């Protein structure tokens, strides 16, 4: 399913089966979970996508010619030599490539991926169970870790990522307060907040709720403008920051963390040729759980 230009539906098309260059794997796609970021790419809210493009960055599949299942995440490649890469912050690499954005992704029967950025997945998860872990789980977990040892954490938005993280947070003994459209402006003291929904005004709502020294973490890649707010909301060493992309180390820490915890995900399946319906359902908020694209 190919994106030819932003703000247009994906087109079903036969394309050449991808060929692996040195260090890459060819993967027969089992499934690819849909992420909110896919919508931002399709809707033209992220600059300079590769075009034409195969979107999708939560890929699970079998390496062609091997008996090995891998997960392909958002981070497709980094330069390895810049200051960010050399200081454990490859998530910030200026030359990084991202799966399903600046590098072809998984809404397809086959994908290629740099072997160094693929993850081996826990064996006791089916491919469909594992796919949402690759971004919703993994990048969400990076945002969660930024909250440090906050005891009471507010989640603004309750999609795939929040549904996975709440299981980890509760297992860690944290209290989680969920804010959705209905209660987004409610007053509720928080030690930290994670903003999953792409709505800038939620940053201000969250800032009103976090205690002194608390952090508001923006977990999404795109957000509407943050409205201006009185400085006193930030005073008291409150912090606003984003959590961007992932490092391979994040993946290692995440999969290690869930070894002792069975993450349950709610999913709705769509055959590959109906990927546009999956995107529309996510856009309109009608989707039950995470949409899974299956070739
Ligand atoms: Zn770099
Ligand atoms: Zn994602």
CATH domain topology of the largest domain: Quinone Oxidoreductase, Chain A, domain 1
User: How would you state the average pLDDT, rounded?
Assistant: 97
CATH superfamily of the largest domain: Medium-chain alcohol dehydrogenases, catalytic domain
| Rg on CA atoms, Å | 19 Å
In DSSP terms (H or I, runs of 4 or more residues), the helix count works out at 7
Largest sheet: 7 strands, mixed
Q: Total domains, how many?
A: 2
Bound molecules: zinc ion
CATH top-level class of the largest domain? Alpha Beta
Reported CATH architecture of the largest domain? Alpha-Beta Complex
Question: H/E element string?
Answer: EHEEEEEEHHEHEEHEEHEHE
Which range does the strand content fall in?
15-25%
Instruction: Report, as a whole number of angstroms, the end-to-end distance.
Output: 10 Å
Total number of strands: 14
Q: What structural category do the secondary elements indicate?
A: alpha/beta
Proportion of helical residues: 10-25%
Low-pLDDT stretches: none
C-alpha geometry: globular
């Amino acid at each position: 399913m190919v994106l030819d230009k932003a703000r247009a539906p994906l087109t079903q098309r036969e394309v050449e089966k991808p060929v692996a260059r040195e260090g890459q794997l060819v993967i027969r796609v089992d499934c690819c979970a849909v992420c909110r970021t896919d919508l931002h790419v399709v809707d033209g809210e992220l600059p300079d996508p590769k075009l034409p493009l195969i979107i999708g960055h939560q890929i699970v599949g079998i390496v062609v010619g091997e008996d090995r299942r891998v997960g392909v995440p958002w981070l497709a490649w980094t330069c390895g030599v810049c200051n960010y890469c050399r200081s454990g912050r490859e998530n910030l690499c200026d030359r990084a490539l991202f799966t399903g954005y600046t590098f072809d992704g998984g809404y397809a029967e086959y994908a290629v991926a740099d072997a160094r950025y693929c993850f081996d997945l826990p064996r006791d998860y089916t491919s469909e169970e594992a796919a949402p872990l690759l971004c919703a789980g993994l990048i969400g977990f990076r945002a969660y870790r930024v909250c440090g040892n906050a005891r009471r954490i507010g989640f603004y938005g309750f999609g795939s990522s929040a549904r996975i993280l709440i299981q980890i947070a509760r297992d860690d003994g944290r209290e989680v307060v969920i804010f959705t459209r209905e209660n987004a402006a409610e007053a509720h003291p928080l030690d930290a907040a994670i903003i999953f929904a792409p709505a800038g005004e939620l940053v201000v709502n969250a800032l009103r709720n976090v205690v002194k020294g608390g952090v508001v973490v923006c977990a999404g890649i795109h957000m509407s403008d943050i409205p201006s707010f009185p400085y006193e909301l930030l005073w008291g060493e409150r912090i606003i920051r984003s959590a961007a992309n992932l490092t391979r180390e994040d993946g290692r820490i995440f999969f290690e963390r869930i070894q002792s915890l069975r993450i349950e995900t709610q999913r709705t399946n769509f055959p590959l040729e109906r990927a546009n319906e999956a995107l529309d359902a996510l856009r309109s908020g009608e989707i039950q759980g995470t949409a899974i694209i299956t070739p």
